[in-house]
Design brief:
The protein has 393 residues and is mostly helical. It is built from 17 helices and no strands. Helix 5 runs parallel beside helix 17, helix 7 packs antiparallel against helix 8 and helix 7 runs antiparallel to helix 16. The longest helix has 29 residues.
Length: 393
C-alpha cells in the first residue's frame, strides 16, 4: 500500500501537467465558492490563467518559437477586423476574448514541447480519474442534500455539476469521462468499474441537453465496438426507434420540456426550436446576423467583426467565424487540429472527435473555456498512449 502511494505521489509531484490540472481545478472551484456563496467576483481562476499563458509562451519560445506564427496571424486578423470599427473600451474587451480563444492553442502547443510526455500523462490520468470520482460524489451530495453550491444552474432548472463552474464545461468533461471510462473497462480491460459507474450516474444528474448528445455517441461507440450494428435484431430495433423518433419527435420533446418549468415556459413563449437551442437561434437571427448585415464590409467577412461579443450566437463555429472571419477561422481550426490530433485515428478517436465537433458547433464555450483546455490535453495524451499500445479500437 505504501509503495503504491509513493508511486502515485511520484507520478503527480514533479509532473507539470498533473500539478497544473490540480491548480486549475482548485482555482476554478474557489472562484465558484466566492461568486455563488459570497457574491464576490474575484477572478482568481482568470489570474492564474494569465500566469499559465506566460509559462506556456516562454516554454514554446524556448523550444521552437516558429510554432507561434499562427497566433501572430490570428492577432493580425483580429486587429484587421476590429480597428476602425470599435472604440477603445470595446477593443479592450474583445482583446480579452482573443486571449480566451488562444489559451487552448497555447496549452496544446505547450504540451507538444514537453519531453517524455508519456510519463507526464500517467500522472495526469491519475488526477483526472480522482477528479471525476470526487466531482461525481459532490454531484450526488448536491442532489441528495439540495446543496446550492453544486447546482448547475442558478435558476429553478434541474442540474448538478459539483465543483465545475460552468454547465457547458461540465457537459464536455463528463462526455470525455464517459468515453474514457467505457474504453478503460471494455477495451483496455482495466479495473475502472467504479469510475465508470459513478461517471455514468453523475452524468444523468448534470441536467444539460449536451450530455444527451454525448450519450448517443457513447452508445454508438459501444455498438460498433461489439459489432452490434451488424446484428439483424439490433438493426430492426434501431430502425424501429428511428421511426418512432421521426413520427413522434415533437410530442416527445414537448413531454420532455414539460418536466422542466424553465423549458416549459420557454417552449410556450418562444416555440420548439428556441427551447431546444436555449435561445441561441434567437441570438443568431435577431442579433448577430442583423449586426453583420448592417455593419460588416468585405474586410469583416475575411478577418472578423465581433464588434460586440454580447451579440454572439453561442453556436461555436459561427461565433468563431464572427470573431475571426473566414481567414482567421481557417487558421484557428488548422492550428487546433495540427496541435491536437497527434495520434493514430481509429473508430474510438473518430467517435470522440465527432461528438466533440457536433457539440462545439451547436453550443458555446468550447474554444474559450479555460478549464476545458486541460481536459483536452488529457484526451490528447490518452489517444497518444492508446495509439502506441495499439489498444484503440
Amino acid at each position: 500500500m505504501i509503495t503504491r502511494v509513493k508511486s502515485i505521489s511520484n507520478s503527480i509531484f514533479g509532473n507539470p501537467l498533473a500539478i497544473l490540472f490540480v491548480l486549475l481545478v482548485t482555482t476554478e472551484f474557489i472562484y465558484k465558492v466566492l461568486i455563488k456563496e459570497f457574491g464576490i467576483d474575484f477572478k482568481i481562476s482568470a489570474g492564474f490563467k494569465v500566469m499559465l499563458q506566460g509559462l506556456f509562451f516562454l516554454q514554446i519560445v524556448k523550444t521552437n518559437y516558429k510554432t507561434l506564427r499562427p497566433l501572430l496571424v490570428l492577432l493580425g486578423c483580429f486587429f484587421l477586423g476590429q480597428l476602425g470599427n470599435v472604440d477603445t473600451p470595446t477593443l479592450q474587451k474583445n482583446l480579452w476574448f482573443f486571449d480566451k480563444y488562444i489559451f487552448i492553442l497555447l496549452a496544446l502547443m505547450y504540451v507538444n514541447t514537453l519531453e517524455n510526455r508519456s510519463a507526464h500523462f500517467r500522472g495526469l490520468a491519475i488526477c483526472f480519474e480522482g477528479f471525476m470520482i470526487v466531482n461525481s460524489i459532490a454531484i450526488f451530495l448536491g442532489f441528495i442534500l439540495q446543496i446550492n453550491l453544486f447546482e448547475t444552474y442558478s435558476s429553478a432548472r434541474f442540474g448538478y455539476d459539483g465543483l465545475i463552474l460552468r454547465s457547458g464545461a461540465a457537459s464536455y468533461i463528463y462526455i470525455i469521462g464517459l468515453f474514457y471510462a467505457v474504453h478503460q473497462v471494455f477495451v483496455v480491460k482495466s479495473k475502472q468499474r467504479l469510475l465508470l459507474v459513478v461517471t455514468v450516474l453523475a452524468s444523468f444528474l448534470l441536467g444539460t441537453k449536451a450530455i444527451v448528445i454525448g450519450w448517443v455517441f457513447v452508445i454508438l461507440y459501444v455498438m460498433f465496438l461489439y459489432n452490434w450494428h451488424k446484428n439483424r435484431v439490433v438493426q430492426l430495433l434501431f430502425l424501429a426507434l428511428c421511426a418512432i423518433l421521426i413520427i413522434f419527435w415533437e410530442p416527445l420533446l414537448e413531454y420532455a420540456f414539460s418536466l422542466s418549468d424553465t423549458f416549459k415556459r420557454l417552449y410556450e413563449q418562444e416555440g420548439l426550436f428556441t427551447a431546444i437551442f436555449s435561445l441561441r437561434d434567437v441570438h443568431l437571427m435577431e442579433e448577430m446576423i442583423p449586426l453583420m448585415q448592417e455593419q460588416w464590409t468585405w474586410k469583416n467577412y475575411l478577418f472578423g467583426g465581433g464588434f460586440n461579443m454580447h451579440w454572439r450566437s453561442q453556436f461555436g463555429l459561427l461565433d468563431l467565424f464572427y470573431f475571426f472571419g473566414i481567414v482567421g477561422m481557417g487558421v484557428y481550426l488548422w492550428t487546433f487540429w495540427k496541435n491536437f490530433v497527434t495520434f493514430r485515428r481509429s473508430i474510438f478517436t473518430n467517435m470522440v472527435l465527432g461528438c466533440l465537433f457536433v457539440l462545439m458547433a451547436l453550443s458555446a464555450h468550447f474554444f474559450y473555456e479555460t478549464i476545458l483546455a486541460f481536459y483536452l490535453v488529457f484526451l490528447k495524451g490518452y489517444f497518444e498512449e492508446t495509439s502506441k499500445s495499439a489498444i484503440i479500437h
